[in-house]
Amino acid sequence: MNYYIIVFKNTYDAMAAEKKLKELNFNFKIMPTPTAITMSCGICVGVVEKEDIDLITNNHMLEYKNVYLRENGGYILVEK
Hints:
Layout: E1 3-7, H1 11-23, E2 29-32, E3 43-47, H2 50-58, E4 66-71, E5 74-79
Antiparallel strand pairs: 1-3, 1-4, 2-3, 4-5
């Protein structure tokens, strides 16, 4: 299953993102950040729908570090 991972600079930004996404009724999952991506923050947000990622990134809804696509066992940087 392919999905997107939103990575944060710190735990504060990750927790603020969780609160905001809950308020906006987004479908997401809080999960440990894969060490293959970054060591900066231990938690990240997983999102399945590309439309949700587009809405988040195009409208600058969250303070995030990077967005990756989890595909075929690897991670592809899609937004910086």
